[in-house]
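Follow-up to my post from last week.
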Amino acid sequence: MEALNNSKLKIEGLYKKFDGESEKVALNEVSFEVSEGEFLSILGPSGCGKTTLLRVLVGLLEPTSGKIYLDGEDITYAHPSKRSMGIVFQNYALFENMTVFENVTYAALLKIPKKDKEKREKIKTKAEHLLEDLGIGGLLERYPGELSGGQQQRVAIARTLILNPKIMLFDEPMSALDVATRLQLRDIIKNIQAKYGTTMIYITHDQEEAFAMSDRILVMEDSRLCQIDTPRNIIDHPANDYVKHFVVDNLVKKIDSLSEFMGGSND
Amino acid sequence: MTKRASLKKGAVTGTVKVTVGLVFIASVIIPIIRMFSSFTIEGAKAVIEGPRFLPALKNTVVLTLVSTAIVLVLAYLLAWCINRSDMKLKGLFSVILVLPMLIPSISHGMGLITLLGTSGIITDLLGISGNIIYGPIGIVLGSVLYAFPVAFIMLSDVLKYEDMTVYEAADVLGISKKRQLVRITLPYLRKPLIAAVFSTFSLIVTDYGVPIMIGGQTKTISSLMYEEVIGQLDFGRGCFYGLVLLIPALVAFAADILNKEKGTSAFVKKGEGRAYSKVRNRVAFGVCTLVSVFSILPIISFLICGFSEKYPKNITFTLKHFGDTLERYDGYLINSLVIALATALIGTLIAFVTAYLTARMRTPLSKGLHLLVLTFMAIPGIVLGLSYVMTFSGSAIYGTLFILIMVNTVHFISSPYLMMYNGFGKMNENLEAVGKTMGVSRLRMIKDVFLPQSIGTVLEMFSYFFVNCMMTISAVSFLVARDTTPISLMIPRLNNQGLIERMAIVSLLILVVNIIMKAVIGILKKDRWGYSAKKNTRKTKKVKVKI
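User reply:
Got it. Predicted complex:
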């Protein structure tokens, strides 16, 4: 792996064993680094530990051992709200009793005293801009229940972005969406990243999605890290049979199934 | 936060759960144990060998089973008519059919006597003389009237949310209607049907209002228990009967829990492509009219009886009894309102907090707390009441309104708790995580997100407590003092004095107060931007705006 000069997030030997009867090991000595402004996908099948990894990173779970550093500072046991991280879930988790605009501004406004009108106005303007950037500027007064899945997910993204997170985490944010909406949301997320320069860690089980969006991809299998590299290198040099099978072969299958209709672009 | 600090936080919530659990144990389990600790084998033997026990046991088993069977058949039939036909006036029928839920069981007994007793309205009309209603027939009829609405609501919900696509698939596959009934409907109904059977059975077996009113010489275990405690002040015998009553309730409860643990049933609401059928609609309309009339007749009889000069001899209209009742018993009515409002407030708060602890902060401790609260469902009101007498008599709270509020709170808490528990369970599981990462505290999240989202359920809980407190004659009956008596308990007393006009007025008062409460709750639920209230309209909109 090439040396990273501008390391944003550094993970060292993360190990997580769940208590209880199963004593399942969900993370086994996982170490990697994420650089400033990078888009990193974590790719793996269901149950490989990728969601656990995300929850440990954001502080919703404590690792059994291992360290997490953000900008060189140890945040392994920091409170989730003190990590400058935001998370977007698959099922949106919006506040259904609030309008789109209230959803986005709620947490940010909580932290500003009522008297500070100027600052509050700033937040509101920012929310409007963000929602505009996400293509839902016309839905401010709607309730989540009135929106499509894709629109709801954009509200969730805006709600996270408004707190200026250093790192944004996505937990399979598109699994519940239809194909057209997914393609659209992909572009929106990439545009947001380009505009705000936010570092993004993106969990998915969809190889194609990972390859289309990522600077680098981290492949996981059964609680372990298999490979972390650029999409190109993963294709050219899969670290082991598993990566070759789960990532490369599956992609090839997809391409093959399409190529016969697409004028042999796969040459 | 260090690792230790977060561990400490876990310990805090654990302590809260343990504290809530201990409060529940102190206010229910300990009194029950205290009550049964006074129980002796010799005492039990004396009761069993006595002349009254075995006949009463037989009556209880037979009459409860017969009533339960009738209730379920009727409830399913009516639920089917309402949900599977296109007849007119569905809304009106749905309201009338559940109206009997708002009056005490004893009033149903009274209504039957007014209608079918010696020189009752109907008996006179048909020219029947002699006694047909006092005894087993009356008990069955009264129990059916009393328990029908609960079973009807349960089964109606089941039919409403049944996934109709299965039937469409079956039709496509050419499976006969008969086979569909045997292979699809019945297996689907198994679980909710078992739940409805046990709810109905428990309701009837523990009720003493109907049998003391209309049973005549036919005694049941619960009416015997009431007589021993109220009439003879024989707490020892009362305890034994209480234990007997606890057995079916516990069996029903265990079966219900096991029933719930087994498998999951998918409730998918799906538009039904039902063919329009005039015959079906007419049959449904006829059945609904018949049952509605039967269930509302007792209430109408209160109107006749309560506003008659001297029922049944002189039925000239008069407001005399109405005025008398209001004037003499206004204090009892106020007691009832105070008890009902206070219980509704406290009960709703406790149920909300407990449901939050068990549904949104899941640990092994929450599971224990959850089961503990559900166990309360199995404890009959009169048993709980007697256990309170034996535990708290002589203490400072005895004879106060507070003990009535306390006993009603724990007596009624299981159902509203379960409503809220299910409500919390349906909310997005990541909401706490969102709050945590955005730096919004748990309490703030409850105030700004969970409470507003569950406001419909909260209002329902409030009205459940209120309505049940207004009409209960069970847990409170042994615990009242002269100046704390709620108005519902005036009904058995007035019965003993033969003041049936006033009994009718009291029943009507309870009904009116409860209808007002239901109406207010209904309006409040609609007035809000109300998540639950508007949800359905939202869903249809959602389809339209999908990109």
